[in-house]
Amino acid sequence: MIDPPPLIDTHAHLDDRRLKDRLGEVLRSAAGEGVAQIVAVATTAEDSASVLAMAREHPGVFASVGIHPNESAQAGPGDWDRVRALAGSPEVVALGETGLDRHWDRAPFEVQRDYFGRHLELARELDRPVIIHSRECHRDIVDQLARLGRPVRGVLHSFTGSWAEAEELLALGLHVSFAGMLTFANKALDPLREAAARVPIDRLLVETDSPYLSPHPHRGRDNEPARVAITAARLAEIRGVSLPELAAATTANARRLFGLPHDRTIKTDQIE
Fold first, then answer.
1. Prediction pTM value
2. What's the rounded Cα separation, in Å, for the pair 216 and 4?
3. Hey, which bits of 52-117 come out as E strands?
4. Is 2 within a domain?
5. CATH number, position 29
6. Taking the chain (272 residues) in consecutive chunks of 10 residues, what is each chunk's mean pLDDT?
7. What is the number of domains present in the chain?
């Protein structure tokens, strides 16, 4: 019997206490569901140092460093310099989570734009992809990216929009990643499922955004990387392909985008 292709959770907040305090269990559970690699995503300068330490300690874990738009107003005077210093580490495979957010009123929008621009420029300088957050500001994201005048290497994470919105992001060079909302039964999410069916297979990623957005039937509970398998299965069903086919494609996409080595995977025998 041939083992199915591994899965990659391209977005997990492993530094969140709900995951960090039981990290060994979380990683073992993920490996048990076929998850070989995880991108641990930071939201502050402090988180950035923490996820980098995790990546250095645990094979199969990789770091993305940055300052979330909702955290940008609270960033200290030296925080961006800390992110820049960490970003060149070999275990850092992306910049972010960055982007824009109009849902919450935690940071002035111009401050968010400034930090988004900083991440985009540093990503270009270091040849790293960006992990982009967008909440109720699709047009703002597209406009800021379009002003760069070049394709953007990165991903719009936890995409929740329509096919028309996905098309605009794809045209800018981005990958599109789907999380647990894809599994929710709400009819209002049908446009999201349409987008999931139509995104080109070579630009498609899956994630958990854990500990948030736990997929059905775990909705409302803390999420974890093992459950990327549930979202991947639903995505395969929506697209009319087998789970092994979907896993092979999304894993190849993630490894290509983030430059993940095939041989650095979660090792359960090395987890305390």
1. 0.96
2. 23
3. 61-65, 92-101
4. no
5. 3.20.20.140
6. 81 97 96 97 98 97 98 95 97 98 92 98 98 97 97 98 98 98 92 97 98 94 96 98 97 98 89 74
7. 1
